[in-house]
Amino acid sequence: MAQSMVKEFTKGLWAEIPPFRLVLGLCPVLAVTKSVENGIGMGIATTFVLVCSNLLVSLLRSVIPAKVRIAAYIIIIATFVTVVELVMQAYTYPLFLKLGIFIPLIVVNCIVLGRAEAFASKNSPVLSIADGLGMGIGFTLSLGALGAVRESLGNGTILGSPVFGPEFQPFTFMVEAPGAFVCLGLMLCLMNLIGKK
Amino acid sequence: MREMINMVIVLTVLSAFSGGLLAAVKTGTKEQIEQQVLKFQKAPAIKQILSDVSNDPLQDRFKIMDNDQELTFFVGKHDGKPDSVIFETSGKGFSGDIGLMVGINIDSDEIIGVCVTTHSETPGLGSRAKDDPKFVSQFAGMKMDKNLDIKKNGGEIDIMSGATITSAGVSLAAKKAQEIYTRLKPEIEKQTAQMAN
Amino acid sequence: MFKQNKFTVSHAPFWHDGDSINTMNLNIMAAALPATLFGVMQFGMAALGVICLSIASAMAWEALFNFISKRPITIHDYNAAVIGIIFGMMLPATIPWWAVITGTFVCIVVGQQIFGGIGANPFNPAIIGIAILSLSWKIFFDFDAALVNYQFDFTALSPLDALKHQGPEVVGLFTLTSLLMGNQIGAIGSVFGAGIILGGIYLIIRGYIRWEVSVAYIAGIIFTALIFNMVDPVKYASPMFHLLTGYTLLGAFFLATESSTSPVNIIPMIIYGIMGGVMTILIRNIGAYPDGTVYAILLINLINPLIDKIRPKTFGKGCNQCVK
Amino acid sequence: MIKRSFIGLTKPKLMCDLVEPGPKEPESIPIPPRMILLLNETLDSTRESLIKKGDMVKKGERIFLYKDSQEYVTSPVSGTITSIAPFTGDFGAVATYFILETNTTQDIDSNFTEFAGTPDIVTADRYLRGIPGNPPLKQLADSANKINKIVITGVDDDLMCTTRQYLLTRFRDDISKATALLRQLTGISDISIAMPESMAKLSAFNGMNMVKVASDYVSSLPQMIMVNHLGVNFVPGKTCEEMGVCFISVEAALSLVKAYAEKLPVYEKIITVIDKKGKKTRVSAIIGTPIHRIFTHIGVETGEKDRIIIGGPLRGTAAYTLYHPVQPDMDNIIIQDANDIPLISDYPCINCGNCVRICPANVPVNILVRYLEANLYQDAADSYDLFSCIECGLCSYVCTAKIPIFQYIRLGKHELTKIDSDIETEAENV
Amino acid sequence: MGDYFVLAISCIFVNNILLAQFLGNCPFLGTSKKMETATGMAMAVVFVLVLAGIITWITDTYLLKPLDIEFLRTLSFILIIASLVQFVEMFLKKSIPALYAGLGIFLPLITTNCAVMGVCLININEEYTFMQSLVSSFTYAVGFGLALILFAGVRERTIIARVPKPLQDTSIGLVTAGMIALSFFAFKGMV
Ligand SMILES: Cc1cc2nc3c(=O)[nH]c(=O)nc-3n(C[C@H](O)[C@H](O)[C@@H](O)COP(=O)(O)O)c2cc1C
Ligand SMILES: Cc1cc2nc3c(=O)[nH]c(=O)nc-3n(C[C@H](O)[C@H](O)[C@H](O)COP(=O)(O)O)c2cc1C
Ligand SMILES: Cc1cc2nc3c(=O)[nH]c(=O)nc-3n(C[C@H](O)[C@H](O)[C@H](O)COP(=O)(O)O)c2cc1C
Ligand SMILES: Cc1cc2nc3c(=O)[nH]c(=O)nc-3n(C[C@H](O)[C@H](O)[C@H](O)CO)c2cc1C
Ligand code: SF4
Ligand code: SF4
Ligand code: SF4
Ligand code: SF4
Ligand code: FES
Question: Structural domain tally of chain C?
Fold first, then answer.
């Protein structure tokens, strides 16, 4: 049991790390990675929704009739998304403003629904939590990494503090929309290169 | 039939659970959210414009319906005398609206200062409107009859080089404030008078 | 029995008209020389340094990428050199060395090599480089500020920036002949209009660029600028002013004509060119940037694959004896 | 070596050579001691062949590989088979070659003689395939082909080639006989004769259907003649015969006339040999003669890395050995000096558009070649008009990137046809 | 009228939903490899987005706001979109099979597409009127379709080019998309 938990947890960190391995849920990845802080914030919000919905779906997996399962999952996910939305608004307001529309949009994030459908609906609550946590942390790490690259090059800072010294002129392209696409594309290439070994 | 009933029951229970949970969270966070909005969006701007007031403008506020728009005015007092109001307007920027807090002295009808609240301008270009003192300080001391447009359009405001559009947006917001203030002056005076203690 | 020679065996055709990528690129560089040399004379050794660094680093990046991706080294086709010189022509003489190197990296690696090298780039690599660089480090492309330490015996104002900031009354400061003869400040290779036109005509005659694209582009510029100018001459500058300032002429002869990103059929070439001209003026007159050439060309590069589907009817199309 | 002209704005048209005025008679090449016959059928080592090493064959005798073989080759001399082996042609097509030791006494196979009095297409197909000019007897005899037009071509379909024009001028008085014979053989009355515009004034052709072909390069290709002069619709992927038009070279028509007149198959093939300096020599050689015999007879030199082109410079094929035998359709041989051989490259298309603007069939070559390069043949055919190509070779000729486009095109067509026929045979086997 | 025109230009070009707002990227990358799928997806999005935009606007204005239950917005919107897609699918299958054959496979994809949900939320956040919501939904969808089709045009070529192995497919697709976003900077400041 413990072994399989570890397995489910770690696969989300490398072997199936979203969004690099499963190229889904790209919009938040592109939109909120202007800085590390935004990226990690988004990642944590998504992780919360993932874990909670995975848990609930798994608990209810024998109760929910197959025909309405997608509808049920959507209700569950939407509920937790709204909880996150309200909580963030109340306690991390600046971050809430920066992430904007992308918080409610967690509800359509393919990863969340995907894990509910592909994993939680077939596995025990414990494993489902491990899966959700793994995927969520993997997602958070990806967003954080992308945010780190974009923020450091594009703004000269990481988590707001300068990293290249005062001489550095930020490569603003990186924090602009086109930079998001190009940067993600090149990181994907890097992952492909490493993954081959 | 059994399945049908089952489906309806599950969805209803889920929805009820969801509605209940959300309603609870909503009520729990309502106060906090309002506080946060004031604290993060308005407070810094208000503080910057009215640095030497004796009251807390966030507390002393009133609302006026202007057409179908509700405007919130924050009142600043010097020595207990409410002599200035601050309210927010907006202008079209390089990418999206720019929110501008405008503080006006009721006695002299002069602008005390302006401050950008929300914007999504390019970092390093338009975003300088928020923290370039040279630019925003131009508005201070302007009377209501001054043309606050940028010089290119026949007004008195020097643009920030490299960000004409943002400059024009800020000017536009300030002009709007002039216009609103002039129109609502009687109402404003009535309301502030009540706040005198 | 006699000794059998080894013969060359390959497929038809056995003749070739002698054209090649090398000669094409050498010709482009030759055509770029007049405007570049003028720029070097005007802006001094710094300009020469920028051009040389640009060419050299472009070739170095290509060689490096070839090496890393384990492909044959292709710098001998001078494609990187062409991109380097055209990129360099669009830079101000005062740009720091590291920005040039970063720029050629963007041009060569991001703009072209990762798509598979020569011919595979969906956007003009030099334009990609300039767009990304000017977006990141706008100060270097503020020609007035960049060239502030130079002494010129003509109006030392960047015409398009002046136009954007002060309106068309500044147009009077520049005569068309002086603009044509390079008496303006701007990028190294973009100030000497006559030289660019000379190079362009040379390339057209040699058949390395298509006159349809250049002419349509210029027509688009003149037409749109004329309409704006007629509607409100106080607000919008004249067509000839637009034609002779900024990157316009570079765009018409050296940028929009780049082969892999421009159409091969005649009607699409004309649409492509006109769209480019129209967008350039739209951006200058109602858009955000003083000079719209760069983004206008990116846009027409983008629509190129679609419009190039307009082509003459293929032999045998439209008969009703379908084989399959 | 061709040099690009300084002005590249408009590409000049390539002009075909015209036959020289008052051409000399061809030099006759003596019958060689050993000759090579090519048979268009694969040698199957698991089957017993009808013909074996050491067998004697008579002049005019048909050689079949197996009992059920449809293909045959007739022996141009009487001799002894000394070797039978597979022969690899273009795109890995496998044929069979026979080496024939010429006998001193010449026996003649007279099977054809008894049919020669009453010309009909079935016996012509049975005995006269592979006579000089290679008349498409098989297609004419095949009732599935709805051929309703015959064109005797006195124009050559590649640059530098002049053999057909030569035959047209030299034997112009026999053309009316050829027309009559073809009419008698096939029952088709719509027979025209394609000739260079410059020759159309000759009175010998009065009363014939004349197709006056311009002398720029692509005008003389069969498909262009069909569309420009005969008003027949071109259908991508079909042969001219399938579209109802049969092209017969003037030599083939004349050979038929001669064979019926002599009541025996004929074998003297007229060939124009063009040496490295461009000097043309016309020869008459027996089909099956290894080409080195021709070269030594007329004193043509070949060197290391030279290229021996069978046909013209844009559509021909390269021979890899001096033992390549004279074939029924081998009108021209060009020797290209090693230094004149243009290099092809491994560059991708740079989209210069030269090919697109020169293609007579308006094929979008610039995109087509990318699909072919990526081995996406089906897409190339479905969306980018692979089968509209009439195989003129001009696109490769002008390609800035020196891509072997024409080779890709032929390969693509070949692969698709192979897939199609594979599917058919599979369907039959099921 | 003029305002609607400006709104339309803004939604199609300046604030293009894909290239400036980062919404709908999964189908953008997933359906752009072939022109046919791209056009199919573009049409399906226009169809669904307009319907969803209208219905969610009505729901929000006449149900959620009066009852002061805006916190149920996310939940109700996603349910509306999901069931709308189901209905459209069933309706097309029965009534217009030809259109269904063209759009069918793309419809389910749209449920989990940020673009649809995103535009519905934008309409509310920007406090658009009914007509403005209608125009914005339609023109955002047109902007989506335009970007998708332009992307497919470029991608049809890059996909057969000699892209180095690790960059193939999605990786180079993202870089290309970035360059398209860059070219859409041309429209900045125009409205
Ligand atoms: C494709 C092909 C290639 C041949 N290459 C050679 C060769 O290189 N050397 C050789 O002696 N015979 C070669 N032969 C066999 C000759 O044809 C055969 O020996 C004979 O005809 C030589 O003729 P000759 O007496 O004219 O030299 C080749 C035959 C074929 C079909
Ligand atoms: C490839 C390359 C890229 C560089 N990119 C930047 C950059 O983006 N911003 C910057 O300020 N300096 C950049 N530099 C330059 C150095 O980091 C450092 O800032 C410079 O040497 C200091 O020179 P300066 O103070 O004279 O400008 C780059 C250098 C190289 C070689
Ligand atoms: C990436 C990029 C971002 C820009 N962001 C802004 C901006 O936030 N605000 C603005 O007014 N102009 C912005 N611009 C527009 C240009 O700076 C434009 O030239 C300027 O607004 C008008 O020129 P000027 O201010 O030099 O007169 C941006 C341009 C680029 C390339
Ligand atoms: C007039 C002209 C301008 C060119 N400009 C460029 C250019 O800006 N960028 C580039 O990569 N190649 C340019 N090329 C080079 C040429 O198109 C290149 O070898 C291939 O097309 C690679 O894309 C140009 C070619 C011509 C004829
Ligand atoms: S009918 Fe068939 S063969 Fe003829 S053009 Fe149309 S698709 Fe091609
Ligand atoms: S090219 Fe035309 S005439 Fe020649 S064989 Fe092919 S189909 Fe027949
Ligand atoms: S060979 Fe080339 S030029 Fe000639 S028809 Fe075919 S595609 Fe066109
Ligand atoms: S001629 Fe060659 S390089 Fe030019 S477009 Fe055609 S295939 Fe491409
Ligand atoms: S995350 Fe936006 S469409 Fe998939």
Answer: 1
